[in-house]
Write a structure and sequence with these properties.
Elements (H helix, E strand, L loop, with lengths): L4 E6 L3 H11 L5 E7 L2 H13 L6 E4 L8 H11 L4 E6 L4 H10 L3 E4 L4 H12 L4 E2 L1 H12 L10 H11 L4 H8 L3 H15 L4 H10 L7
Parallel strand pairs: 1-2, 1-3, 3-4, 4-5, 5-6
Length: 218
């Protein structure tokens, strides 16, 4: 039996919500359980869902919306409902906007011109406790973050520690426990590692670490 991931859609364009809903309905492991046209409405709907113990697993969130923008809403969702993950789905790839979304607690950042399969992959990754970044966004951010540095030299000592733990298969929660930091801080370190190394997933990070000899191959 397939474990179904409950998804909540937030976008001020009804056609976008309809399109995502139609696509997700074709997938056996994703179910749209609600939607909202802006951040304020999303928080209202999530409060109702929480009262009946029916919170979604993942929220797919636009960033530019009326009443309450996506960045603010991501922070509110993560603060109020820590078990609910958020994936940012937007037309904007500016480094500052991506940093703001990840700092607010987003577990993924996907552009609206990405394939629908990639949006689904980001939702699945978020539900699994992983960070998923659009490849084009990751490349752009790498240039802004790293400049002339390359490879492991671009990482701080703490980020190298996190990379090794990721490669060993540890979740964000386990990384936080081992390094005695908060789970949100662990998530931020993982995001920074992916950005600096121009990688899109934890799996890619693990393979990169093995190739670099940072951890032995399994």
């Amino acid at each position: 039996m397939v474990d179904v991931i409950k998804v909540f859609l937030v976008d001020d364009h009804a056609v976008v919500r309809r399109g995502m809903r139609a696509f997700f309905e074709l997938l056996p492991d994703l179910e749209v359980v609600g939607e909202a046209p802006d951040g304020k409405a999303a928080l209202d709907e999530l409060a109702v869902a929480a009262a009946s113990d029916c919170l979604p697993d993942v929220v797919v969130m636009d960033l530019l919306m009326p009443r309450m923008d996506g960045i603010t809403c991501i922070g509110e969702v993560r603060a109020l409902y820590p078990a609910v993950e958020v994936v940012a789905l937007t037309s904007f790839s500016e480094a500052e906007r991506v940093h703001a979304a990840l700092a607010a607690g987003a577990a993924g950042y996907v552009l609206k011109d990405a394939d629908a399969d990639e949006v689904a992959a980001a939702v699945r990754a978020a539900h699994a406790g992983e960070v998923h970044l659009d490849a084009a966004v990751a490349r752009k951010l790498t240039r802004s973050l790293v400049g002339g540095n390359e490879g492991v030299s671009a990482l701080s000592s703490r980020e190298r520690e996190v990379l090794v733990l990721v490669a060993q298969g540890h979740s964000n929660r386990e990384i936080a426990q081992q390094l005695v930091i908060s789970e949100r801080t662990a998530r931020t370190h993982v995001s920074n590692v992916l950005l600096k190394l121009d990688l899109a997933s934890r799996t890619q990070a693990a393979l990169w670490a093995i190739r670099q000899g940072l951890v032995p191959s399994p």
